[in-house]
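STRUCTURE REQUEST FORM
Protein name: 2-keto-myo-inositol dehydratase
Source organism: Parasphaerochaeta coccoides
Requested output: structure tokens
Priority: standard
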Amino acid sequence: MSDDAIRLGIAPIGWTNDDLPELGGEIPFEQCVSEMALAGFSGCEVGNKYPKDPAVLKKALGLRGLSICNAWFSMYLTSRPYEEVEKDFLAHCDFLHAMGAKVVGVAEQGNSIQGRQDLPVFDKKPFFSESQWKQVSEGLNRLGEAALKKDIRLTYHHHMGTGVQTTEEIDRLMESTDPELVGLLYDCGHIAFSGENPVDSLKKWLPRIWHVHLKDVRKERREKAIAEKWSFLTCVKNGVFTVPGDGSISFEPIFKELITRGYSGWWVVEAEQDPAKANPLEYALKARSFIRDKAGV
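Status: completed
Returned output:
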């Protein structure tokens, strides 16, 4: 493994939550990115407090030795005309290209419940109909081709509360899309939270995994989420997720698989928590130390 094969980033969601603005609402952008750099990370994803002007954002990040590696994009291929989705997507890719990012992470939100606080994430999980699978897979191929023209690779972010959550759904999505145009944004925390082994999808799809999110899951909170029928956002507020090494996932086989099979790209710590309960700098430092000790990265 070359020294620069893996780059380590962190998502701002531990400081300020885009889906729950009240979590970390008082934390300014400057504090967030300064603490990312202080914790030893070299890159980050984009949060809702980040400057929208690439020149302004580049300067702020450059002062701290940070770069942008990805930004979430919500697709609505099952509920809006493709042309509308593509227009927004291309604008999103233009911003990422200006920031020097090489991947974009997307997820279908047309029937998602991840933002619904009134629906239990397990009991009300949505499923794609056959026509929706066709809309998503064909739309992804078209968007992936458009992204490549901007020197960006499209990755699909499987996610709790959506139509692509389980390993079976991940398999179907990968099998129904063009391997040259659509990759996987692998998130071990979402697979584990879904109740499955995160190593299985990693082994099966590693050649098409172009971006990695690292988060841990607190087993006892997951069990409570199921028993008490929590929504996804209730799970976040109650600490189901945490940083690598602070939960129940065994990361050693994940790190070993990624490193020995030559993964090249970003590992991004993405552990959405309430910053009032989990100090963002403290947990960023904890994650950085764990990854250094267990993966040598």
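Reviewer notes: Residues 6-295 form a domain with the TIM Barrel fold (CATH 3.20.20.150). The chain has a mean pLDDT of 96.
Form closed.
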